[in-house]
Design a protein that fits this description.
This protein has one helix and five strands. By secondary structure, the chain is mostly beta strands.
């Protein structure tokens, strides 16, 4: 399952939910064109499944590889940092 989240500024974040080999338990709560709020849960993964997050170019993650995170609470990145990170004329 892939979920692409587009902000009001047009920035896009992609989350890919990948099912584990044994249980294959992924649930996605949102549908195409649904409006979301910061921190809103949009799905659930269980039993060895994972979620890969792809941020816009120029955004620095605020978490480390392997760090324990809590859905709806942990801040992965600040998308406002992208404006300062990219020189003029470079597209996201």
């Amino acid at each position: 399952n892939a979920v692409v989240i587009e902000t009001e500024k047009g920035q896009k974040v992609c989350v890919i939910q990948i099912a584990g080999l044994i249980a294959r338990r992924i649930v996605t709560f949102v549908k195409q064109e649904d409006k979301m709020k910061p921190g809103q849960r949009f799905g659930l993964i269980r039993f060895g499944s994972r979620a890969d997050v792809y941020l816009p170019r120029g955004v620095t993650p605020k978490v480390m590889v392997g760090q324990y995170m809590i859905g709806g609470e942990s801040i992965l990145a600040n998308l406002d940092d992208i404006d300062a990170a990219l020189p003029n004329g470079i597209e996201q």
